[in-house]
Fold this protein.
Amino acid sequence: MSAVGDESRLTAVQSYHLLDAPRPVVLDELTRLASSVFETPMSTVTLVAGDRQWFAGSTGMPSYGGPLDTSFCGVVVDRRVPLIVQDALTHPVYRSWANVVGAPHIRFYAGVPLVDEDGYLLGTMCVLDDQPRETGGRRMELLHTMAGQAAGHLSAIRNRLLLAEVGDELSRAISREEDFVATVSHELRTPVTTIQGYLELLVDNEELTPYRKMIEPIQRNGERLVRMVDHLLAGTRPAGTPLPLLRAQTDLVSVAEAAMAACRAQAVQREVSLRLEIAGGEGPLPVPGDFTRLSQAAEHLVRNAVLFSPGGSAVRVRVDPGGLDVVDHGAGIPADELPHVIERFYRGAFAREQAVPGVGLGLSIAQRIMKAHDGELTVMSDGSGKGTTARMTVIC
């Protein structure tokens, strides 16, 4: 019998109350991270129901789901194994699917099963592209890690809903905040990411090559707007509201790799190289923590380092058993500004004078993530033009 129609599996999918509901922000954040790691314009956390798929988390997809008769995720659930399609247009079955020959023009697909804590196969964690491509074993390992994170976040969301139903005030407060942030994200972020998806198609259209110089700035500024919305949503959470975390065994090397992947395009644009250094020469370096949140914190540090680094220089990301350092060779931070750089919306004189992009929330978001992990964020600089070192210390 097909795994898709299994009644116990469908009951499990329904128990999360996410079909036709606003997408949880943490799952959107996870898909954004997956797109960064795989360098694909699209990624989803997909729940597979009996007759359709629903994107509980999504980046770059122009819809909220779709039918199962043209669903790569449905194939994963039916077969109960990962699926990699390097070029859908060369596949005897997939090449005629509507989502391949039409929008969003899927050519590449990589998806792994999304299995919850009770062992039910809920759907998939996947990445997609409108260009054919290959993927290696290390990246598929990361996709499996992200699927585990997605399953953990789904369980936490369901547990908070159950607690809220029985009257737990803290769970109700968190649920209300998550609903508000999800709604704001839907109204602000979703339209921009949809525009970004169509801009990707325009960039890839050879007939529009003469107009590429006009399209690419729109694309870059759209990405900047998405990041700004993300920062505002994450950085203006009420101070008394706990940051929901999924505490699990996490690899710091994978955290560093994900953060660097998210910043690679910006580093290339600014002609800054990214270098990973691992204590002992290789990983993994396991720590207890939320992979998505720690990757976000590291991404803020790497992105700051890239923005404040001169062209031709390198940003080093050093990982050791106790944490992660991000080292740049920029202008540094003056002594009188150093105590304030982690404050919300603080922007130093150099950032203002040089019009460095940002709203002054990255370090405060990273600090909140580290505090939620009982860890620490420290920023060190002598302000003499020798650069800055930011360190995330994780309590093992």
